Amino acid sequence: MVLYMAFVGLFKDCSFGMFLLSLKKNILYSIIHEENLQLIICRPVYAAGSKCTVLFLPYVNEGTNPEGLNVDPEYPVGGGLPTTWATVLTSPATTPIWSPVQTIGFPFSFNGVAVTQFKVSNSAVLTFDVSTAVAAPTYTRAALPSALIPDKSVCIWGLSALGTNDNVVKKTFGTAPNRQLWIQFGSYGYGNVASTGSAFTYWSIVLEETTNNIYVVDQRTGGYTSTKQVSIGVQIDAATATSVTGSPNVLSQAGTNALPDDNTYYKFVYGTQAAVDAEMKSLNYNQFVIVPGTSTIAGSVRNFGSTAITSMDVKYDVNGTTYTTTLNGLNIASGASYNFTHSTPVNVVSPSAYNLKVWAEVTGDGNNLNDTLDATVTGLAFQTTKRVLVEEATGTWCGWCPRGAVYTEQIDTVYLNSAIVVAVHNNDPMENTVYDAGMAGLIGGYPGGAIDRKDTDVDPTDFEAKYLDRINDVSPADVAVSAYFDANSRQLDVVVSATFAADASGDYRFNAILVEDEVTGNNAQYSQVNYYSGSTNVLVGAGHDWNAEPDPVPFSSMEYNFVGREILGGFEGAVNSLPPTVSANNTYSYTFSYVVPATYEEAHMRVIGVLQDAETGFIMNVNRGAYGLTTAVSETQTPEFSMSLYPNPAVDFAQLEIELQKSGAFTVEMFDVMGKNVFSRTSSAASGKNVFNIPVQSLEDGVYMVKVNVNGSVVTKRLIVR
Question: Please, which pLDDT band fits residue 10 given cuts at 50, 70 and 90?
Answer without folding.
Answer: very low
